[in-house]
Fold this sequence. Notes:
By secondary structure, the chain is of the alpha/beta class. Helices cover 23% and strands 30% of the residues.
Amino acid sequence: MSVAGIIFSNIHDSNLPELTRKRTIASVPFACRYRLVDFALSNMVNSNIDNVNIVTSHNYHSLMDHLGSGKDWDLARRSGGLKILTPYISSDTAYDGRYTRLGALKNIVSVIQQSTDDYFVLSDCDVICNIDLTKMVDAHIKNRADITIAVKRVSNAPELDETDILLRSDENGRVTEVLSGPMAVGAEDADMNLNILVFSRQYLLDVISEAIFHDYKSLNRDIITRNAKRHNYYAYRYDGYFSCISNFADYFACNMDLIRNKESRDSLFNVKNRPILTKIRNSSPTYYAKESRVKNSLIADGCEIHGTVENSVIFRGVKIGKNTVVRNSILFQDAFTGENVILDNVIADKNVVIRDNRVLSGAEDLPYYIPKGKMI
Length: 376
């Protein structure tokens, strides 16, 4: 039995327009040293899936720079390894103007046809978790399922976005009902679809052929919802930490949660034999000046801290000037603050420069965003 992986790098770009103008959602920075793609990729590598295809659409240069040859994930191989599949977009691959999973699969059908792998694991990049895919594939085979869908039990779903998909299943785990759109909001005793799925190679090809023949656009709406009662679709319940990045506020809240909640950090980053891997950079250690004050923050290497940092996420190469206070904020790589600056609930993208004596503040549910390369 062999398993290959497919990761969709652009599917949810529209959820984070602020951060995806010049990058894919897969390459959005997260938790001071990672990119969102690192979680999907690490889940596969930690589950001995060493043939991984990353499907791109646009703005993928930052992603290619991050992934390189795949050596940091032990995927630089002559056979299998990491493959970035170049984009081909037509009117047949989009749904309501969006690039979809089913559209992406239509584009790479020849890759799947030529594959010798028995099973495929499909994953989005907007769900952050540390899941053992080996157990999920084993459950798929045991149940003789057509599709196995990773889910997270939610007792009540009043705050779900209308784009979220919920599933109900019987005592054996077989999916009996799919709830989407307004039906999902407020649903009780349902499982949230984490958009991590297992297919057999042949059934995946059958799904793609059906989609091409009927001009289907959406995997969830046109395949899973339509066929749930006729085919063997099973839910695989995941009980660990997860966060779904559905919008800009979710992104900010998820980073802040990892600062404040040690249990969340441990269940994501300190799982035995399941490290979250990322690109290795040989940066110098962070310099903390005598006058600096740091509290309850995630700080990467290569930084210079002369001011105060509280409850914040600081990426590589950030420089914080004297008498500057950074609270409840996220500063991306190589951001620079001058002296006597105050930042509160701010997200500063890469290479941002904030000059002396500036005061910038947002709200917890609406952080102030500074675009990439901007000087203020």
